[in-house]
């Protein structure tokens, strides 16, 4: 069936609406970062840059690490942007832009987020590089998609609903990381459940001037336990990435540079160094 011109918007030059990329522009390994300035911090390690493109906050560099073609792309902040980036990345590989039909043979790509995050457990200090075993979304993105949980995800989800069920306005969603990427890119890294929040301040338990509706949010988060699982950190994209990657048939992992300790009330004085370390670890393992 043809996808309509208002469902899938293709620019006059044949590129996809927001990302401004042509089919063929992305490699089958895509590194996503939140901050557009971080794209160059990743691609400076490429042996060759094929091209640089961009529109709004979505900056893309595709190039080579040795013989391996790699794309690095900025998503900006939040899961509303993840909705755009993931649907457009998927369309670039799985929709024929000439016929507007879904391709008969679907392609799965590997997506690796390198982001920044705040830890909520006292034994996870600033400077830790942590791979998210699960993404737990506290935002509303997955209210709009159908998602099927695996048995393991369902067991964990039941405990999450019991723990957070009194927060009536929040409908949490949960997705596991790609097991293969967790065992390769994430090998030897600290691991835990990452909460994706729909904001940086009260949605992550921060108090500045506005009063928080959920008191002691960090205590509520770090006291959660389900078998060996616990919540380790907070950021703003991972759960949307994991959920949409799974819905669309791609593999995803999120690597978090821990810049803040929310339980020790500290923020790193050298955030760039920690991010640099996370980038290098990921590039060595691709
Ligand atoms: O450093 P990035 O990848 O943007 O990630 C984190 O930093 C931003 C907030 O400062 C949010 O996007 C959060 O997820
Ligand atoms: O605490 C933090 C640090 C970085 N990014 C976040 O979203 N939260």
TrEMBL record:
Its EC number is 2.4.2.3. GO terms for biological process: nucleoside metabolic process. It is an enzyme of class 2 (transferase). It holds the Pfam family PNP_UDP_1. GO terms for molecular function: uridine phosphorylase activity. CDD domains: UP_TbUP-like (cd00436). Residues 30-280 form the Nucleoside phosphorylase domain. This is Uridine phosphorylase. It comes from Pedobacter ginsenosidimutans. The lineage of its organism: Bacteria, Pseudomonadati, Bacteroidota, Sphingobacteriia, Sphingobacteriales.
């Amino acid at each position: 069936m043809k996808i309509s011109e208002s469902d899938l918007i293709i620019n006059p030059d044949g590129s996809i609406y927001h990302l401004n990329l042509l089919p063929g522009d992305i490699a089958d390994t895509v590194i996503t970062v939140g901050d557009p300035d971080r794209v160059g911090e990743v691609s400076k390690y490429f042996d060759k840059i094929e091209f640089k493109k961009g529109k709004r906050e979505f900056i893309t560099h595709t190039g080579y690490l040795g013989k391996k073609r790699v794309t690095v792309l900025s998503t900006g902040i939040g899961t509303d942007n993840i909705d755009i980036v993931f649907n457009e990345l998927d369309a670039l590989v799985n929709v024929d832009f000439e016929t507007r039909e879904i391709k008969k043979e679907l392609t799965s790509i590997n997506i690796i987020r390198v982001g920044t995050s705040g830890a909520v457990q006292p034994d996870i200090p600033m400077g830790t590089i942590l791979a998210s075993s699960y993404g737990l979304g506290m935002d509303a993105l997955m209210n709009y998609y159908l998602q099927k949980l695996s048995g393991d995800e369902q067991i964990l989800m039941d405990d999450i609903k019991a723990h957070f069920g009194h927060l009536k306005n929040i409908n949490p969603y949960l997705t596991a990381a790609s097991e293969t990427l967790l065992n390769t890119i994430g090998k030897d890294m600290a691991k835990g459940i990452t909460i994706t929040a729909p904001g940086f301040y009260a949605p992550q338990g921060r108090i500045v001037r506005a009063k928080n509706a959920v008191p002691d949010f960090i205590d509520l988060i770090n006291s959660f336990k389900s078998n060996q699982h616990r919540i380790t950190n907070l950021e703003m994209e991972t759960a949307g990435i994991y959920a949409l990657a799974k819905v669309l048939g791609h593999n995803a992992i999120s690597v978090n540079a821990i810049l803040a300790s929310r339980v020790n009330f500290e923020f790193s004085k050298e955030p760039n160094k920690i991010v640099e370390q996370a980038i290098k670890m990921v590039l060595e393992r691709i």
